[in-house]
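Dear colleague,

Thank you for sharing your sequence with our group. We've completed the structure prediction you requested, and as agreed, I am returning the results in plain text so they can be pasted directly into your records. Please verify that the sequence below matches your submission; if there's any discrepancy, let me know and we will rerun it promptly.
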Amino acid sequence: MLKIKLFRTGKRDQALYRIVVAEAKSKRDGKYSALLGTYNPQVNPPEFNLDREEYTNWIKKGAQPTETVRKLAEKTAKTS
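Please find the predicted structure tokens below.
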């Protein structure tokens, strides 16, 4: 099963995240199939970039977003 989840990058105490499509049982920072966007919680307001077209295409293909990714996507969709 494919999941749309956060892939942690950045230095210690300065987390940045990539939004990726990966196998559900893969490691958090393991191999991934596609890069959909980024999330930077370090700036104010947090910066969230997501390719909406690719996101919906992957969901149509059966990928399921994690709870965190789903909430971030919904929150930014309402403000746009």
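Summary note from our side: The CA atoms of residues 7 and 30 lie 8 Å apart.

Kind regards,
the structure core
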